[in-house]
């Protein structure tokens, strides 16, 4: 399924005169109220317009499972509720910002957010059960979700300086190769809290964060295509089951 998603068509406008997508499937869960700052992802191909209404031009179509976060709204127009969203983009086209219709949960709440700004330099795949996001040394690293800091440590041949955070329902996130750690074990953190600085410590060839999501010790898929531009507030485009509100 994942392989069918082509980021190359991210900014190509669809010829279909629709607000949402063809054959869309409503996401599971409730369409609880969105709000500014909420990490979201698209459950269908979704038009990104220059303004809040069907009369505004379409500047892009965010593909299904594109992560983003809400920066303005809501505005009601043309029978839809509209939100301004900063979407992740691919490395060729960059990020895109515009208005999308909420629809039937076309913009779903994300369970986790990406931990930093940067570019995906290694996808989650066999042999690499993590997402690598690269940027400059010292780039802020944020908690992907609220929780409790479980581990802060140093591993010379592997993760370098790293942080592990425990979340509800047996979930744990890990942030590796940091240049600095700003939290301590046992500390409670909220989604988006500044927890460390990007670096290249341990087994690393350049500054990046090696980011993992586990549940009860089992690695979970971390979405993100090679060369995607990630914004730190953007939602991970995946529903992890059993997760409550952020
Ligand atoms: Zn990695």
Short description:
The chain is mainly beta.
Map the helices and strands.
Layout: E1 39-42, E2 46-49, E3 58-62, E4 67-77, E5 80-87, E6 96-101, E7 107-109, E8 118-122, E9 131-134, E10 140-142, E11 147-155, E12 160-166, E13 171-181, E14 188-189, E15 194-198, E16 208-215, E17 218-220, E18 229-230
Antiparallel strand pairs: 1-4, 1-7, 2-3, 4-5, 5-6, 8-9, 8-18, 9-16, 10-15, 11-12, 11-14, 12-13, 13-15, 13-16, 16-17
The structure holds zinc ion (ZN).
Zinc ion binds near residues 122 and 128.
Q: What tags apply to this protein structure?
A:
single chain, 246 residues, mainly beta, Glucose Permease (Domain IIA), 2 domains, five-stranded antiparallel β-sheet, 18 strands, binds zinc ion
Question: What would you say this structure looks like, in words?
Answer:
The protein is mostly beta strands. It folds into 2 domains: 2-109, no CATH class; 118-230, Glucose Permease (Domain IIA), CATH 2.70.70.10. Helix content is 0%, strand content 41%. A hairpin with a 2-residue loop joins β16 and β17. It binds zinc ion (ZN).
Can you tell me the CATH class of the largest domain? Mainly Beta
Percent of residues in helices comes to: under 10%
CATH architecture of the largest domain, by name, is Distorted Sandwich
Bound molecules: zinc ion
Radius of gyration from CA coordinates: 18 Å
Q: Describe the largest sheet.
A: 11 strands, antiparallel
Helix and strand string, N-terminal first?
Answer: EEEEEEEEEEEEEEEEEE
The CATH homologous superfamily of the largest domain is called: Glucose Permease (Domain IIA)
Roughly how many Å apart are the termini? 27 Å
Percent strand equals: 35-45%
Shape estimate: globular
Number of strands: 18
Query: Into how many domains do the coordinates divide?
Result: 2
- What's the helix count? 0
As residue ranges, the low-confidence spans are 1-31
Mean pLDDT: 85
Q: Structural class, please?
A: mainly beta
Q: Predict the CATH topology of the largest domain.
A: Glucose Permease (Domain IIA)
